[in-house]
Amino acid sequence: MNETDNPSEKAIEDILARNPDITEEILGIEAGRLVLVNRQEVLPSGRSDLVFRHGNELILIELKVEPLESSHIEQIRKYVPYYQEKIETGDIVDIESISPVLVVPSVSNGLSREDVPDDVEVALFSLPDVLDRFQDSVFSNLRNFEAAGAQTGVNHLSLVSGLIEFIGQSDEPVTVQECADKYGKIGKGETNHPRNRIRKFLRITSALNLTQESSNELLLTDRGKKYDEAMSEMVWKVSQEQADLVIDQLYSSPFSNQITFSLVALLDAIFAVSKNSHPVPRDDLQDYFAVRVGKATDWSDSSRRDAVKWLGNYLEELGLIKEVDQQYYLLPEGLRVISYFQIEKGKEMIRSVGN
What is the percent of the chain where pLDDT is above 90? Predict the structure, then answer.
C-alpha cells in the first residue's frame, strides 16, 4: 500500500474494483465498458491503485479520500511511463492511449481544477453516493434473499396434500383446470375461486420440488412421488416422512426460491430473538422478521401478521418449532437447519459480493 493509504481508501477502492458500474458513473463513461486490468500493481515509482481497460484506452486511477493536492498530480504522472513502456514492448496490447485520472471527493482550498495539467483528469465522487450505490448493488445481487411472506395465500402446509394425492392417483398428467374442477375433493373447505386456490397450492408444491408443470400439465417430481407415498391416513396432517422430505429441501437448497428462504429466514429470526428471551411471542416477532428480510417498508401490519403466523404453521408442521399460546420454541431439528442455513447464507453473500 502507499503511505497515504488508509482503511477508508482501501474500502472505496474495493467497491470501485468490484463494481465497475459505479466507477463508470464517477468517470462519466458509457455503462458496461470498463474492464479491470489490475489493482495495487507495484511500479518502480510507487503502486497504482486501479487500472481499467476502456476500449482502446487504458485508464489509470489514483484514488484519494482527502481533497485533491498538487502532490497527487505528480504521483499519478510518475506512473504513466511504466504503462507506456508495457504498451511499446507488447506486454499490453490493443491500447492506443493512456488516461491518468485522480478520483477525489473534492479539490483542496488553494488548488483549482484549472491548476490540473491537461494530461491528468480529475473525477469527483461523493462518498455517501458511492456507499449507497454499493449497498443497492449488494442487495440487488442477493436476489434470493427475498421472503414470500403472506403471498403464499395458504395458511397450512398440509392443505396441499389433497392436490399431491389427486395428481399422484391420475394415470395421465392433469391440468390446472381439471384440478380446479375437482377442488371439492382436493381442497379442505369451499372456495369461490378454485382455479386461483389451486394456483396457490402449486406455488408451494413447486417451491418444495414436489410438483412440476409443463405445457399446462401437472406432474409429481420424484420427491413429490415419495411425498405422496408417505401420505398419512389423515390426509390433512403432515407425516414425519413427508416432513423429512421438505426439511431435506431446506438443507440442500434454502435459497432456491422465495418460499424456502422465507421458512429458513423465519426460523433464523426466531433463533435470533430467542437469544434475548424465550419463548418468542408472535407479536414481538412480526416487526423483527419484516426488518430481517428487508420488508419493513413493504409489508402492512396484516402482511406481517400473516407471514409469521402462516410460515410459523409450516415450521411447526415440519417439527422445527413448537407454538404454545402464540409463543415459539425452537426444536432440535430446527436448530440443525439454522446451523446449515448460516453456512449457506455466508456462501451466498460471498458469491454476491465477489472475491
Answer: 52
